[in-house]
Amino acid sequence: MMLVYATPSDLTGRLDPVPADAAALIASASTRVRDITSNDLYDITPSGLPSDPDLRQALREATCLQVVAWVEARIKPSTSALRVQVASQSVDGGSVAYRLPDPEAIRRASENLCHEVVLVLRNAGLASGRPLIC
Fold first, then answer.
1. Handedness of CA 5, 11, 14, 15 (dihedral sign)
2. What's the whole-model pTM score?
3. Could you read off the pLDDT of 49-96 as tens digits, one per residue?
4. Radius of gyration of the chain (CA)
């Protein structure tokens, strides 16, 4: 059973507009949040979510923060696509130079949780079963 800790409506007020692929981003973020909290022990509801509303809120917050980080960095975790960036441009000559972002940085960002997410989880007493590797 795949646990999903947030809904696209939870992104309202955080992202404007909420991306069309919000459900997919939330699913990817939830998978990563679940991975880092997999050693944590807590009572659960029949749906697998924590019984404690504070823990549910921490998981929701962490998931939303990760989605916001990906959207702001223009990262699609499912594809880790390299997007061309404008490196320089000139007006009179009409030339534009492009560069690709560092593929290793994109890979790390798409595979790992941002530090703020880990802090939210740890402040709630979660994600303490493994060291943070950035």
1. positive
2. 0.78
3. 999 999 999 999 999 999 999 998 888 887 644 455 555 566 676 676
4. 18
